[in-house]
Amino acid sequence: MHVFDALADPVRRTVLERLAEGEANSGELVEAVQTRYKISQAAVSQHLKVLRDTGLAVARPEGTRRIYRLDCSAFLELDAWLARIRPQFQAEPTMREGKAPPTPKRRLDLGPMPDKAELQSMLVEAEGQVSWAEQRWDTVADIAADRSAENAPLAARLLCRLAKSLRDGRPVRDLALVATHLADERAAVSRSVLEEFWKVGLVSADLRTAVVDHLHRRFRHGQTGKTSLQTRLDIIDALAKLHRATGDPAVSQVISTIVSTGQQRTADEE
Questions:
Q1: Cβ within 8 Å of residue 51, ≥6 positions away
Q2: How far apart are CA 249 and CA 73, in angstroms?
Q3: Do 3-70 and 74-269 show the same overall fold?
Q4: Span 112-138, pLDDT tens digits
Q5: Which backbone phi and psi does 65 adopt, to 5 degrees?
Q6: Does 3.30.70 match the CATH number of domain 74-269?
Q7: Residue 101 DSSP label
Q8: I need a labelling partner for 137 at 20 to 30 A (CA). Which of 7, 143, 175, 267 fits?
Q9: Strand arrangement, sheet containing 57-62
Q10: Where are the domains of the chain?
Q11: Is residue 95 within 8 Å of 101, Cβ to Cβ?
Q12: CATH code for residues 3-70
């Protein structure tokens, strides 16, 4: 389930509103929900599991209960998506007044959407520096943002390569959008995006920090079972490549942390 799907349910939003006030144990969250909705404790527990699985909340054991808090990293994805439409919303008073908005215009690129063949050609060219990155970034990001689009993962890979050719803040802004493709259920697709994703960390220190954060989060919130084990190994390998290329001790520290966590999770699954 995607973050947006998780937020669509009013019960889960009630839980998040309560957690926005501070940590709460499972009993307190059940009480907060049951003051608004006629729902069983077991049903609330299922909603809490969804919030954990989507990375919107994290829990730690304390006695017989769990203590929950918001996982702010998940909200980075939401903020990245909102950042793409906020400028238009702020610029058009008719939207705030509830009137029909005008046909949206792309911020920089007014050209047609590239098809798969063109995206593949752009991907090859973007192995090096390209002069057209600034003009095409937003169009490619629009394709990557539509998770249901056939070419979305390809567009996500292209954004990773274009990051080194841009000097504005869009790569940092849209990295969370690209990171959603790391959770693609098709292993070959998620691995192809991961292979490009870690290289974004070579562009700048800010992007490296963001890349490591997203990979750490993906490691923590991956599926369970054999697929999860392979995913975790792939993430460790990607971080190792990033560390070898940069020598950044912060990357090494994260690797040590997740290796320790991964060993414990593997033992729990066996």
A1: 6, 12, 15, 16, 57, 68
A2: 22
A3: no
A4: 688 999 999 999 999 999 999 999 999
A5: -120, 170
A6: no
A7: P
A8: 7
A9: 24-25, 65-70, 57-62
A10: 3-70, 74-269
A11: yes
A12: 1.10.10.10
